[in-house]
Amino acid sequence: MVNYEEAVKKPFTDLKKLVIGIVLSLIPIVNFTVTGFAIESSGVGKTKPSKGMPEWKDWWYLFVKGLAALVISVIYLIPAIVVILIAAGLAIGDIASALLGTVITPELMSQIRAGNAPPEQIGMILRQNWYLILPTIIKVAPIFLVGLLLALIASFLTPMAILNYVKNKRFSAAFDFGAVSRKALTGKYFVVWLVAIVLTIILGAILKFVPFLGSAISLFLVSVISYSLYGQVYRKV
Asked: Which residues are CB-contacts of 45 (< 8 A; sequence separation ≥ 6)?
């Protein structure tokens, strides 16, 4: 069984470590160490996983691990990005063809190409001539949906891919799709993944009202709790 209580309590087992994590979450680039720390909290690759958080030490190691996690996430998203860009390119081309010469003047088209077109003017044109672009929306919608589905699949597989990299200490292990799929395609992991999403939404909604520190607190708590849950599933499957 997945111990949700243990995972939720983990960020609060040491106030000093919690404060350090929140402060580091505020600093761009440096906050890669927070991701590395959260991954360490999973307990994957350790002989005896702890119920508490790891130590804030080996800073370069944590930074590299967090950076590697980002790179893995981006690589998994590449198919989705390519498909969405193709859909966007088709949409822009078709909309421009439909509106050019009638609604969009050559002068405005020149501004659009140069990136100088007033956004409010473009928005007004699209709102007033939605019926002209409706066929294009219908045409590219399935491609966009495929891109979104690929992005969803990537977000689902990425945590297990990252932990597989950590366990095997090889970057290429993140792309051992057989091993990653065996860990991810289970009922336990699916439930944990959904819980992590819900937790992200709830904490983000609550803590956004906390001035300055809200997003940092949310980032640290969600990262540690989520990877603690992912780690439990990874070790048991």
From this structure: 166, 167, 169
d(C-alpha 113, C-alpha 91), whole Å: 15
For residues 92 and 160, what is the distance between their CA atoms, to the nearest angstrom? 36
Predicted TM-score (pTM) of this structure: 0.86
Which domain covers residue 143, as residue numbers? 4-236
Nearest alpha-carbon partner for 38 in 14, 64, 66: 66
Model confidence pLDDT, tens digit, residues 38-53? 999 998 988 777 788 9
* Residue whose pair of structure tokens reads 């927070």 in the numeric block: 34
Residues 6 or more apart whose Cβ sits within 8 Å of residue 52: 10, 13, 14
Return the beta strands (E) in 50-130 as ranges: none
- Domains of the chain: total: 1
The CB density around residue 20, as the number of other CB atoms within 10 Å, is: 17
